[in-house]
Amino acid sequence: MKKSGLLILSSVLVLGGLTSLASCGNGDDTEEVTKGTITISGNLSCEVGGSSQLSATVTNDDTREGVTWSSSDTSIATIDSTGKVSGIKEGTVTITCTMVADPSVSQEVTFTVNPSSDPSVEIVAPTTSLTVGSSFILEAEVYNPKGQALTFNWESQNNISTISGNSETITVNPVREGSEVIKLTLIIGQVQLVSSVSLYYQDDFTSYTEIATKEDFDTIILGDADKTLDGKYCLTADIDLEGEKINGANLALSLTGTFDGRGYTLSNYEIVGNVDGDGYYPNTALFKSITASGSFRNTHLSAYTNQEGIGWGSSILVNELGGTVSNCLIEYENKYNQGKEGWFPFNAAIAGTLQANATIRDCVIDVTGDGQGGVMAIAAYPAGGVKENGQMGDPQNFTVNGIYTNQTSAATYGSAWEWGGPITIAKNVVTDIVWDSEEASTYSTLNSTLWNLVDNTMPSLKNI
Fold it and tell me: Does 323 lie in the same domain as 295?
């Protein structure tokens, strides 16, 4: 008898995807395999500076691995892992959503970034490093969608510039060396906007005496005959002083002019003094004093003290500071520790004592060595005398703004000692820093024109 054949008809329902038939066993059966689909929903436009949240509906994603998002032009619009689109500038991009489990499944949409309806302003500078004696143009790029009346108010925050004009463009003339911030307050209709730009003004170094070698430094600085350095001096190279012992007590050098390291390093020297009849060492430092007219800046110092350099107010830079120390990186090794509990040397990294109106600004200080814990004032001690009744002296008029150090807060500067009152102005002092785990944003006052600022790295000076 002939068996009758059995005909099996398969019906397939396709829901937005592709279907394939896979043979199974001896080829007589089939299994339906349906690819996934993606549907994107949400507002497909936003303004410059605005955002829009997109979402994806996925079918046949049994793995639950989700999707990825991408933008065809991130200069126009970016999109994060959640589907949030941020408008950067006017234009059109393609947004693509892709299934993680099956990258062959994706969906594209066109996204438009429209002009902002809000006004804005941004200052454009030709460069952030300029020379004293020159002039330059600053321009305000204003977005004024409603064409409203504009009122400009430009100002120098640090008062080391003169400004000519008060419109969308101004002429700026640097008056002296230093960090400057030019601020613009713009009134557009009833809206007030503020924009600023940070600049650095450097001197014209053609008028400076250049120091390029150890021999230059020994002759021009340490060998100055009248002990008064009233000129302008700059480093043009890193200088290794080869372990030279500098007896500042004997030299009694006074810096009344300007020393600009231009970001270079003066390293490997030791500060020493002469022991007196009672076995004590006198105050000693590279300079006996930096007077009110004196300025020491943009220099990387790497030096050390030992037992011969532990006098009251000793320092690897200056004993008596009456002028300005700014934008210096100081690596100070204190090699001497007497080993007695409660003992400490009265020395410091920057200055032994501060005189009225002294300024310390934007310095990075790394202290190491056996006597690190005993260095009681890596910035400086207050100067001044004790009142007749034995009470604390009057507050001292110093400016300390921008100190970043690995020392503890108790060892940063002498804020109140029996021979001087508290420092009245001390801002942006950050202590207890672990250099290799600190974000660059910590160093908020340091000018990136002068400093290399990188996460998890101690700041370093740039050559200018």
Answer: yes
CB–CB of 364/329 below 8 Å?
Answer: yes
Any domain includes 5 = no
Closest CA to 351 of 387, 323, 390, 389: 323
- φ, ψ at 287 (rounded to 5°): -115, 140
Over residues 411-436, the pLDDT tens digits come to: 555 544 444 444 556 788 888 899 99
Strand partners, 254: 228, 289
Where are the alpha helices (H) located in 29-188, listed in sequence order? none
Looking only at the bridges linking them, the beta strands covering 265-272 and 239-247 are parallel
The 10 Å CB-count burial string (b at 16+, else e) for 5-33 is eeeeeeeeeeeeeeeeeeeeeeeeeeeee
The residue assigned the tokens 């020297």 is 269
Q: Given a cut of 90, is residue 184 above it in pLDDT?
A: yes
Q: In terms of DSSP H, where are the helices of 310-437?
A: none
* The token pair that represents 309 in the structure block: 């350099």
Outline where 151-292 has alpha helix (H): 214-217, 248-251
State the Cα–Cα distance between residues 384 and 320, nearest whole angstrom: 12
- Residue 298 phi, psi (nearest 5): 50, 40
Q: How far, in Å, CA of 121 to CA of 194, rounded?
A: 8
pLDDT at position 2:
38
Neighbours of 261 (CB within 10 A): 26
CA distance 66 to 238: 56
Handedness of CA 306, 311, 312, 317 (dihedral sign): negative
CB count, 10 Å around CB of 410?
10
Evaluate whether residue 238 is within a structural domain.
yes
Strands 77-79 and 84-87: antiparallel
Q: CA 31, CA 100: separation in Å to the nearest integer?
A: 24
Same domain, 212 and 197: no
Q: Where are the alpha helices (DSSP H) in 130-171?
A: none
Do 110 and 163 share a domain, yes or no? Answer: no
Minimal CA–CA distance to 97: which of 36, 46, 48, 45?
Answer: 36
Q: At residue 373, does pLDDT exceed 80?
A: no
Final residue of a structural domain among 202, 221, 246: 202
- Decide which of 86, 114, 142 is a domain's last residue: 114
pLDDT at 165 over 90: yes
- Joined tokens for residue 50: 């605005």
Please give the Cα distance from 95 to 110 (Å, whole number).
6
- Quick check: helix, strand or coil at residue 68? strand
This prediction's pTM: 0.72
Residue 335 domain boundaries:
206-461
Q: Which of 32, 35, 54 has its CA nearest to residue 44?
A: 54
